Amino acid sequence: MERITFKNEAGLTLVGHFYAAPSKSIIIMTHGFLSNKSSSGRFDRFAIKLQQNGYNVLTYDCGGYGESDDTAIHFTKQVADLRAAKKYSHELGMEKFAFWGHSLGGRLSLTCYESDIDTMVLTGPVTGAIAYQHVDDFSEEQIAQCDCNGSAVFYVDDPWRTEIVLDKQMLADFNHMDQAAILQNVHCPILVIHGTEGDLEKELAQITKQGENFFPAGTKIMELDGADHGFMEQLDEIETLGLHWLHEHFSVK
User: pTM to 2 decimals?
Assistant: First the structure.
């Protein structure tokens, strides 16, 4: 694994980990809300397994997260960050691309689909609009901060930073997503994995089911019994399911 840096279109430095393999196929992994390139250790272990199976892997911190440059986060900025990660992958000589996203990283992956993306693996993805109050424990004070100052501070348990600044726009970003428009623009098979436990994961699974007819042909939507939004007790199963899916839908070139 190599620590790498690249720039987004705003000139901010983004930090990632690159897992090199002897191929031109790369999987770009995008983390969720208030997370980082490690994704609570999920991406670290998945990346190693994928690398062992011949895939290059790039994990990265969106701007304002982890080791990347500070900025107040909102969705449009993170879209630009994923596009910058893909551009960097092109510059590394990669020719085949797949996305792997967790939670909000799933929505980012769907939004950033381009015709050269062969497939996606999405765990607990946000596939439609969801009330921001349901996503995290936003306090009244934080909401008031956003209203008055345009941003609010979240204190996080992160090895690289103590706080993340939430732009007021992010609250609206959760509330507004044109599910049909985004999903109908994606034309690659997707593995979607949801859990059956916890209020957030149940709601996300229901949102996905509501848009099931909009997903592209070849998509598989499944639920893991007993899994909550973190899937921390099901990492072995996620790893196996994801690797099997990629072997079927994403060749090592």
Answer: 0.97
